[in-house]
Amino acid sequence: MPELGRSAYLTSFESQRPALKRDAGSASPLFLSLHISEEFSPGYCARAEEVCRWLREKGYRVIGDVSTKTVDQFGQPDLVGLAEAFGLWALRIDYGFSQEEIAALARRIPVVLNASTTSPGFAGELVRSGGQVMAMHNFYPRPETGLDDGFFRETTQALRAAGLQVLAFIPGDEELRGPLHLGLPTLERHRGLPPSVCFADLAVNFGVQDIFAGDPGISRREEERIRRFCQEGVLELPARLEGEAAALYGKVFTNRVDSPAGLIRFAESRTYSCFGGEVAPANCAARPQGTITMDNSRYGRYSGELQLVLQDLPADERVNVAGRVEEPYLLLARCISRGGAFCLTPD
Prior knowledge:
By secondary structure, the chain is α/β, with parallel strands linked by helices. It has ten helices and 16 strands.
């Protein structure tokens, strides 16, 4: 399973420190940019060194985002010297370096390439030469500039075929990085969506192996959802359940492996049934996508079976409407794979 990496910034580090301290010792990857011009100040170098030392002591694997400006700013002889001085685990090469320089660097320290601009052929050559190489997509602060699904999928698949681990970003939902404060997603359609939704989408639908929060802040509730998915493989799906159906909250279900594309069929429907042997017909309304249903007694032996509808369906006198999954969590519902585990939550 993928894991959630963080991003830290010198300008917001003090507000991030409590959360980073709470998760210390997890050996999680952390993205830290060391070439943001607006952060440069007389005390910048000392401050960056102090932050890197603190992160290293807490067990984080820091990926330093660097450019030619970084070497000049810190007065180091080269990037390897910078990595050693600051305790960086890997270097994310942004711009200004030749392929020969990157190849030489990859033989000495893990290197993270720009996934959106790197040739899969060149990346594959680095891997075959013995270099420790990964690829990371950018995040996009300005609305309308994030990647579209087609380009993202194409580049990610090409780099994975070349032997690279691919990394990407999701937006936060609390403290958002300035100056725009509009989220830092890789995919444009993730802008403004809950982090857990974006995380599951990248992991399940695109096969991304390491996912970073681009923004400084993610709420505890969203972190808990992501952590449960990573550790237990269970997707928590916020839903509104009506009447007796509220008894289904918190129970872990499995999507039947033979479910069609337009339905999630709850494999444990009868095991967890809270409606007894006979489900009386009630609220047999239309079933737009996101509707949670149960079959009633008019369906004979299927009575009590539960489904989550992923396509618009008409009303059926044999099917009761028991609740709904609302936007923006419909995308999360589409991340429940065949055989995948999930549970319904009230928030």
